[in-house]
Design a protein that fits this description.
Length: 257
């Protein structure tokens, strides 16, 4: 039986499924990943300047402008067949936890309202000093080019600079969300690791942790990663091509529970 059918038959027997996603799941929506050699953001931009508290403090206008450019890209993008397939999977399994490292809102817009965001959101900025949430104006920001400087707005409460609501290098993951992600991972029967390079820890440990706790691990990625030797199934290809096939097959097959 080919790998895809085997994954579908495992899914039919599962109670608890975790879907863990990274930037690759939004690649087919034209949102750049971080580490793909030619197109990844970190091949063109310096993470130390753009994704660290020190970088923000030394040049807030550069950092705020860059994230507004990314927020604009995310708002102009549409969910792709991978996001839509994950949303269609939800009613087909008894329990599904979606955990994402992505900071766009394409999973929500595809129909997954409940998800655990490990790295925050482009759409939930807050004060750098007092963490008061900042309400973004409606609509799509007017920011045509990456690298354009924009002065961050000030906090209404303490006048501190507003920062993007994402987790930067050197910062901790949101504690409760991380605990929930670990709990779902440790208890699941099957975990999908989709579109992530498996390089950024602690998020990257989740598929390995699922395997240690006895889950079936299914990786979907056109390229190899450090998870390959551990995963039970490595489905090499774009998520927007592979995931709809899995979900279509699951929707057609009678349940075996
Ligand atoms: P990466 O850019 O590190 O990895 C993206 C992965 O997606 C790579 O393994 C690609 O091979 C794969 N990929 C590309 N196109 C794909 C497609 N169509 N379908 C499936 N997979 C595809 O992105 P992440 O692993 O998400 O942190 O990066 C982890 C974190 O590092 C990010 O959350 C970000 C970054 O610094 C923060 O923003 C805090």
């Amino acid at each position: 039986m080919e790998a895809l059918s085997l994954v579908v038959s495992r899914l039919q027997q599962c109670q608890r499924v975790v879907v863990f996603t990274g930037a690759g799941v939004s690649a087919e929506s034209a949102i750049p990943t971080f580490r793909d050699a030619l197109t990844g953001l970190w091949s063109r931009f310096d993470p130390a300047r753009l994704a660290s508290p020190e970088g923000f403090l030394s040049d807030p206008d550069l950092v705020w402008g860059w994230y507004e450019w990314r927020r604009r890209k995310a708002l102009l993008a549409e969910p792709n067949p991978a996001h839509l397939a994950i949303a269609r999977l939800l009613p087909l399994v008894p329990e599904l936890t979606l955990i994402t490292q992505n900071v766009d809102n394409l999973h929500e817009r595809a129909g997954n309202q409940h998800l655990l965001r490990l790295h925050g959101s482009l759409h939930q900025p807050r004060c750098f000093n007092c963490a008061t949430p900042y309400p973004l104006p409606e609509g799509i920001p007017d920011e045509p080019e990456g690298g354009r400087r924009l002065t961050p707005p000030r906090c209404a409460r303490c006048s501190g600079p507003i920062r993007p609501g994402v987790v930067w290098f050197g910062e901790s993951l949101p504690e409760t969300i991380w605990q929930q992600a670990e709990q779902a991972t440790n208890q699941c029967d099957l975990l999908f690791s989709i579109g992530t390079s498996s390089l950024v820890w602690p998020a990257a440990q989740l598929p390995f942790q699922a395997k240690q706790h006895g889950a079936t691990v299914v990786q979907i990625n056109p390229n190899g990663t450090s998870l390959d030797p551990v995963a039970d199934f490595n489905l090499h290809g774009p998520a927007g091509f592979i995931l709809p096939q899995i979900v279509n097959a699951l929707a057609e097959e009678p349940l075996q529970r």
